[in-house]
Design a protein that fits this description.
binds flavin mononucleotide, two-stranded antiparallel ribbon, 17 helices, globular, 9-stranded parallel beta sheet, alpha/beta
């Protein structure tokens, strides 16, 4: 059965125009990444996981993750924490920031997070996890979604018990990445579990894990009955994967790659400031310019350049035609000033 990826679907009243979702990725899912994902066909994008403790303490960097641009919608903001009351308060901030969906992280396998009782460790305590979901669902009128792993231990099927319990508690959508927390990113995502989860709940399920092509997306949708597929690593420095999955893309030229990277660089500098962006962007150079698109020494050379201006000059020297592509892109993409960035109320920033 062919599944139409262009079909819209809903998470409660939020309409998602395509069945492709861009994954939340810490250290990756900045606004520039999310806006790019929407342009290339993702129907829903998600912020990286935002610490509830950071929100509570009004940590400036954390609050920066709550900045929403007007052309990102529909957008989920993901929060992580372990205290229902704090999670509820954070959900209200997420709502004030302008998100369409509050997503809760019950999937992060990283020790720094799980040792605080957050992330995937909540899969070992379904009742506490349900209390968190109930508190968040009560705190906000927005739909609440949960992203989870299959369980903490290898071979675990806990998601099939925890998932329905979370829906009972108020979750309006579940995303399953069917690897165990212990597995981190090894092995493969066992989507037969996704199919079982779909059978057990009445809410939409998003399938996450190892979706890297249109063929794979079609197969996962058809065999699991999931409402959408989520794409993460395959979209890093490669939005063309999203277009390929949507059936609208072809391999980019070198000029297109450089132009898209330059736009990403400029947007990220605006978002994070030049100092933070300089380090943040380094991994993206390899992601964009790899896949046989540019020779390895060129990527390495970019990493040695001390300023963003030098990176831009070097990129344009390698693909002079990118200037025209970039101009066209910038004409299509709303400019910074046209996009409402600071939708957060001033009180959220603690400013006067
Ligand atoms: C660098 C990186 C950061 C991630 N950060 C998050 C995160 O903040 N929240 C989350 O729910 N999942 C996170 N994930 C998991 C992804 O959302 C996704 O479920 C996983 O990568 C499997 O999908 P993929 O095979 O398409 O990459 C992260 C994954 C990667 C590779």
């Amino acid at each position: 059965m062919q599944v139409d990826l262009n079909e819209s679907w809903r998470i409660r009243e939020v309409e998602i125009p395509t069945r492709l979702v861009l994954a939340p990725m810490a250290g990756v899912s900045v606004q520039a990444f999310r806006r790019q994902g929407r342009r290339f066909g993702a129907g829903l994008v998600c912020s990286e996981m935002v610490s509830v403790a950071g929100i509570q303490h009004r940590n400036e960097r954390t609050l920066g993750y709550l900045r929403v641009a007007s052309d990102e919608h529909p957008l989920a903001i993901q929060i992580f924490g372990s205290e229902p009351t704090a999670m509820a308060e954070a959900a209200r901030m997420v709502e004030a920031a302008g998100a369409d969906i509050v997503d809760i992280n019950f999937g992060c396998p990283v020790k720094k997070v799980t040792k605080t009782g957050a992330g995937a460790s909540l899969l070992d305590d379904p009742e506490h996890a349900a209390r968190i979901v109930a508190a968040v669902a009560e705190a906000t009128p927005l739909p609440v979604s949960v992203k989870m792993r299959r369980g903490t231990a290898n071979g675990s099927r806990d998601c099939l018990v925890v998932g329905p319990r979370l829906v009972e508690a108020g979750a309006a959508c579940l995303t399953l990445h069917p690897r165990s927390a212990k597995q981190m990113y090894t092995g493969f995502a066992e989507h037969s579990l996704t199919a079982e989860l779909v059978e057990r709940v009445e809410v939409p399920v998003i399938a996450s894990g190892d979706v890297t092509s249109r063929a794979r997306a079609q197969a996962v949708l058809a065999t699991t009955g999931a409402s959408a597929v989520m794409v993460g690593r395959a979209a890093q420095g490669n939005p063309w994967t999203l277009a390929e999955i949507m059936g609208i893309g072809s391999d980019p030229s070198r000029e297109e790659v450089v132009a898209e990277l330059l736009l990403f660089v400029r947007e990220t500098v605006r978002e994070l400031g030049e100092f933070r962006a300089t380090g943040f962007l380094k991994k993206f150079y390899g992601w964009y310019l790899g896949r046989g698109r540019f020779p390895k020494p060129f990527k390495q050379e970019l990493l040695t350049l001390p300023t963003i201006a030098e990176v831009e000059t070097r990129l344009l020297a390698a693909a002079p035609g990118a200037v025209d592509v970039l101009e066209r892109l910038q004409a299509e993409v709303p400019d910074v000033d046209e996009v409402l960035l600071d939708s957060l109320p001033i009180s959220v920033y603690g400013g006067g």
